[in-house]
Every structure is written in C-alpha cells, then in structure tokens.
Here is the input.
Amino acid sequence: MTAALVPLVVVGAFIVLAYNLELFDGRFHGDFFFAAAWGAFPALTGFVAEAKSLTAAGVLIALACFAISFAQRRLSTPVRTLRRKTVSLTGAQELSDGRVEPVTIESTMAPLETALSALSFAMVLLAAALVTARL
Here is the structure.
C-alpha cells in the first residue's frame, strides 16, 4: 500500500463506522455526508489508488460523484416514503389555464423515479468515460 493511501484507509474506516452506527447523534447520516462518504470518497480513493497521486481530474471526478450521490439521496428519500409509508395522497393541482390535475402517489413518484433512473444511467456513462479515458 502506498503512503498516500494510508490516510484514506483511516478515513474510510471512520466513514463506515460513523455512518452505519449513526455515531455523534447521527450527524454523519444525512444527505451531505452520504454524498461525501459513498459518492465522492470512493471515487477519490480509487483515483488515488490508480493514479498514485491526486490531481485536478481526481477532484473533479469526486465532485461529480458527490453531486450525483447527493441528487440520488434527495430524490430517493421522498420516493421511499411514498412507496413504503404512504397509505393515500389526495389533492389537486390547479393550473393557470384552468385545468385541474389530480395529485396521487403515482403522479408524485413518477418524476422522482424517472430522475433516479437518469442518475443511474449518468453514473454508468461517467464510469464508461473514465475507463475509456484510461485506455
């Protein structure tokens, strides 16, 4: 193991414990930390392990993974609540042209699930781009 990876291994061990055990009153279990711990950090660590150094490209990759993970977390939490805990959802959306659209569980979940699918595809494309760049 290279010397550059030792601090990352220590940080990784802390992340796993702090997140999964909800240490420090759960301060490390929110959306921001999720994106940092499970999006940016693994990407950064993988980059340093392969490149043997940290460069601007590695930081940008980590930031992209942070953003994708943050968006995923912000979208998946309300979808999960709708799917697992919501018994009913009623209401109507009145539009400026006079139309009234019903608000349902399905109509509320659909755009969130579509965005989550797009994010999944974006992550695969990002990974493919990175592999291609290394060829």
User: Anything to note?
Assistant: The CA atoms of residues 16 and 55 lie 25 Å apart. Helices lie at 5-20, 31-51, 56-84, 105-134. The mean pLDDT is 90. Strands lie at 92-94, 100-102.
